[in-house]
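Working notes for the structural subgroup meeting. M.R. asked for a predicted model of this chain before we commit to crystallization trials. I am recording the input and output together here so anyone reviewing the notebook later can reproduce the run.

Input as submitted:
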Amino acid sequence: MDAGREDTSAQHPLATQEWLTSSILLKFAESADDVSGLCELALINKNFSAASNSDQLWQKLLPPASHLEPGGLQKFWLDRRTGGECYMMSARAVTIIWGSSPQYWVWPRCSDAWFPEVACLRSVCWFEIKGKFQQPLKPGSYTVSFRMQIRNTSCWRRSPIKLSLRNVSYGHESINSCTLFQGQFPISGEFTVEENESCPVEVEFAMREIKVLNWKNGFLLDGVFIRPSNVVNALERRTISIVQEGYIDHYEEVVDVDVDVDDDGDGEFVDGVDDDDNDDVFVDGVEDDADDSNDDDEGAI
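Returned structure, recorded in token form:
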């Protein structure tokens, strides 16, 4: 280097982490949905990586803590590919008819569940679960789905479940559908948040069988997902080669769980399924007939 030439590389803005951080934050402010692109920048060098991990970068995507259900009954996370807001409500956060009566429902603990307790149906003829979700959401399409397990499908096959979903914020009519617990059965529904929405979105959902009224059992509920539809669709595309019917979520390992309810109402969860009729289900409303699929899945229900 010539003696008279001054080395200004250290002062060049491209060489400073501060400039990189401010530039990335500016780009993020212009396009808050371009989260995947920002994460790709982190692979270029350590300065981009440090900037992409900035709390200032991600804090604007987080909801206020006061909006979450108290007592740990609701979980929130950002989808790592899209930055979409994802929620899950515990079974304790919804209304289950006769849910507090141990002769009908019990609440055993399960290490494989998202929440400490899971609602386990012993036997009822009037089956009804309903809940309400209220949060400020970005404009777009969202999917409500249930994280559930069916141990005994035989007592449900002549009892169609009526699903309903109503966006109270816009006064939209309920979206109703019926399904049987056999074959492929997506237990989910969609709602849309409009561009001009300024108040928190309020959505009511329900799952009922109050018409046939035969005795039903073997149903477990961990909670209810509320996620952007593009996140759910991406999960379905990623797992279609593993599970040919329906989809499995990717957030934790998928595990089929046996539940033995003792005479005193206590539940015991044991990993693995040993039923010969392969009726067990523990996915987002999708029956899993492939015994070997759990070994290769990345995520959870």
